[in-house]
Amino acid sequence: MIKKLKDKAKDTKDLFKDYVPEVLEYDPDIDGSEEHLIRDRLLEEKEKLKDTIGKLKDKIRGTGKVRR
User: What are phi and psi of 6, to 5 degrees?
Assistant: First the structure.
């Protein structure tokens, strides 16, 4: 069993011995330069809506407490 694992490890080393990593350049046109900004705007809008809904629920509930 151990011999099989050692042979397998040697095989994987042989697979990548000639591998040369390629340097990738960031291109905003391809990579979507404003995607993170859209996400941030959506999260801000979500927080505003949660606050608004919370305030409306409090207004509807009044001073009464909800038992669950």
Answer: -65, -40
